[in-house]
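Schema walkthrough. Field components (list of strings):
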Amino acid sequence: MRGSRIVLAGRPSIGRCRRSFTTASDAPALRCVVSGGGITGIAASIALRQAGHQVTTVDGAKMLGEQYHGLATMLPANAMAALQDLGVAAEVEAQAQSLERLVLIGEKGDKLFGEVDLNATAAELGLSGGFHGIELETLHKILHTRLKQCSKGVKHPVALGTSIKKIGLSPDGALQILFNGKGVKSAKNTHLLVGADGVGSHVRGTVGGEDPKLEFGGCGVWHLILQKRPDSVDPHTAVEVWGAGSRLGLLPLPGGKLFCYGAVSRRAPQPDSPKTRVAAFLKAFEGFHGYGCEHVLAAVVDGHAGTVDIAFDYPPYVTSATWHSDRTVLLGDAAHAFPHCSAAVYQGQSLAACLGDTTALLRALSASACDVPTGLAAFVGARQQAVDAEQAAAKKVTTESQQSTARGSSIRKWIQSAALSAIGGVGSLGYPALLRSSLKKL
Ligand SMILES: Cc1cc2nc3c(=O)[nH]c(=O)nc-3n(C[C@H](O)[C@H](O)[C@H](O)COP(=O)(O)OP(=O)(O)OC[C@H]3O[C@@H](n4cnc5c(N)ncnc54)[C@H](O)[C@@H]3O)c2cc1C
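Field assembly_structure (string):
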């Protein structure tokens, strides 16, 4: 899955930033390059600019955000807290659907495995933002607009069609970066390089350590956005309907739309063809019932729901052992992608982790007073454990779902505490102890 490697030239870094960094007011403190203009890269660029740093952001694609077409997610309260830090929470709330409940039922609609009061959950964790459903394209656009606001005087805050070609080191350890493409040619004396270039990250090759494998996520996923939500689907309830080895999810969106995803557990990728995709989706969830999911399936069958843009994906994930070197750090999916078909309780946590990474990085840099290597080490130390735990839990949920009909009651036992813990703690550098203790119970 990896493309060509970036060439790292020069001598080893001595690793200290000469200029001290304590507050945003002594800007610009650091010269930064962010590789990747997805949600993580844009969020990181905003956070760095807000703190007064100089930022060059590049993306290899010719258009930004195309990967998000047709995708939506639940934005949990911890993601909202990070969006608050980035100055876009109000805009996101205005363009998202507020959610009150998350329910998990059996495929026949007669068993309730779990129910989470989302507002009570957020309040219990001291998070005020609530839970929302949003299209990823919308979220990316909001963040991009915010980046433009934070980049006054910069014509193109993200240089498109541009990627890193070569990295060298100056005698004092700063990075000398050369780019491919027309947007920007070089970034001299760079203090910090952020690799936010997704699960197939090229920057990952420069941080040392073993080159991690992209792993098959353990399932195939269909996703579609219905333009008109059936009346039987509650606009404030997110639903997952679990069969044996398959899960159908409904996520209300603003404007009367509905995001629907179907996940089937698989040991290896299966052949997929756009011609047979809709039929395969309907076959996988034939007979699923409850909370209006039967009407969603019927709407797909007879085309009454507006345009159904059904796509199928085998999301890979990666467990990277090494996230940073002296002056380079990986964020978001470049560092850690989760198996994306994890259960409802983890929904939104891939994205929440991407957003949480950016605010945690800024806190760590700020606390280290411009000592970039120290700040990066603190950031990674704080995040690694939580992300490892989250990945393990997501894997566990994928396995559990294969026997979900037989084991509904055991799932019910842990699902509420796991839901609580999974969304906890964006306010500090890492997730709170709550996460670790409840994961022990799984
Ligand atoms: C099918 C699917 C369903 C998902 N569902 C959910 C969900 O329900 N909830 C949830 O929380 N998350 C979900 N996710 C995950 C979520 O979308 C990701 O965690 C998040 O978008 C990662 O953002 P990112 O910016 O880190 O990476 P990406 O979105 O992958 O962005 C990486 C960017 O880097 C650029 N790039 C790549 N290589 C280079 C290079 N060499 N040089 C320069 N730029 C480069 C790319 O063009 C891209 O713009 C889903 C993902 C998929 C695929």
